[in-house]
Amino acid sequence: MEKNKAESSAPPDGGYGWVVVLATTLINISVLPLVQCFGIIYEHDFKILGVTSAETSFLLHLHSAIYCSLGLLGSPLLKKYDFRRVALFGTCLMSAGIFLSSFANSYAVLICTVSILIGVGQGIMLPASYLATNTYFKKRLTLAVSFSVTGASISQIIMPQVCYKLLTHFQGTRGTVLVLAAISLVAIACCFLLKPLTKTLAETNPNQDQEPDRSAKPEEFELLNSNGHVYKETTVPVEKKSLFAKVYELFNLELLNDRPYVVAIIGMSFSFASELNTILMMSFILPELASFGEKDVALALSVQSIADIVGRLGIPLAAHYLHIPPGIMYAGSLVTSTVGRTVLATCYSSRATIFWCVSVIGLAKGIKAVYQSVIIPKFVPLEKLPAANGLNMLLTGCVSLTLGPVIGVVHDLNNSYVYALHTASAISMGCVVLWAVYFFVRERKEQAES
To answer: Which residue of 51, 109, 168, 413 is 20 to 30 Å from 41, comparing CA positions?
Structure first.
């Protein structure tokens, strides 16, 4: 009986899980284009407003810092509510933020709508969709995540071209962003497809209509003491916990005692900040380094997204059958993107070289997008996954908000993205060095103990 119960509660690794994968894919496709194409949409307006590279970097990294930091809030929310409700709430906030951004006429307003409102919504939505996929998959988790992020990246091929056409048609940003706000409504409908696994199992369980065992004792029963007084079991005093103990338990802070997990999230946080800076600022980098116009930038981003899809789908499939660990693949993606940035910073006069560089960076981005989602589940059980993911996102947000603007300041001090690109590469390689040293030392220690 216990074996059957365990089997019934195991992730199905398929079935309705593929509907969940499709739903999370459509959610990301619908609500993320504004941030992904931010440079194309606002690059001209920012020039008129005199917004500096550091200010632009701050806006985009504040958005990422907020949604990453709110990942910690997702843990208690997901303990109280199912992932469908949490995802719906976050998606509604993002849709509202996109709509209000269409009326933004200053840098400060965009901080409120893009960085704060959309960032808060994304920070609530992402852990819920992440947990939904992890709930339905275990053995095929890498493949499921790969299909999900690959589907989402398809829109990144199309949306830069769409945004360019919309900007040309509407002669401004308001009409373009209003269209993106209408598209975001699709995500709200898709949230209703994120069906909690417990309900799905109950509906497919043939024994669910059986009569309950009426011979079992009720949960509440009375005890008689020697004097004949009646006491309820529920009146037994409960040990009170301190506020720190409650917070410690609520957010599963005991995870910070797990050294491999801590090393993993430190490396991922720093590399996330540097890689994100390159991706988000590409629409500003190419016009400055190579004098690209909006049409050329849109084409470069589409080429980058095509390579992104190859990195999300093709490379993980090969790695899955070759049994290459996620950590190795993630570190390899950082090395690959560093090569792309280094060549871009030194050979930006050649148009062909630039497109090669954005392709390499896109390939690395796709690989990283898959494996950053499956590294943490290798260290923690499913019941602690929301908290582990939340702590990782909190650290990532703090690091991103610190390092992102620093890279922007490097540009402003030197009036060139060359040094900013090298700075981002140095930070990413720091993650590779950290992991290599830690796991080499740990392996040597384990061999010595054995």
So the answer is: 413
133 contacts 24 by C-beta, under 8 angstroms: yes
- pTM here is 0.71
Determine what percent of the chain falls in helix, strand and coil, rounding each to the nearest 5. Answer: 80, 0, 20
Tokens of 326: 């996620």
What span, in angstroms and rounded, lies between the C-alpha atoms of 262 and 434? 12
Q: Which two tokens stand for residue 116?
A: 């704060």
pLDDT digits (tens, 9 = 90+) for 44-88: 888 888 888 888 888 988 998 888 777 666 667 787 888 899 999
Q: Mean pLDDT check: name the lowest of 14-18, 34-38, 71-75.
A: 71-75
- Nearest C-alpha neighbor of 390 from the set 186, 253, 235: 253
Those residues with Cβ within 8 angstroms of residue 263's Cβ, 6 or more apart along the chain or in another chain: 434, 435, 438
Nearest to 36 by CA among 46, 25, 28, 44: 28
Question: Which residues make Cβ contacts (< 8 Å) with residue 256, sequence separation at least 6?
Answer: 262, 391
Q: Is the pLDDT of residue 237 over 60?
A: no
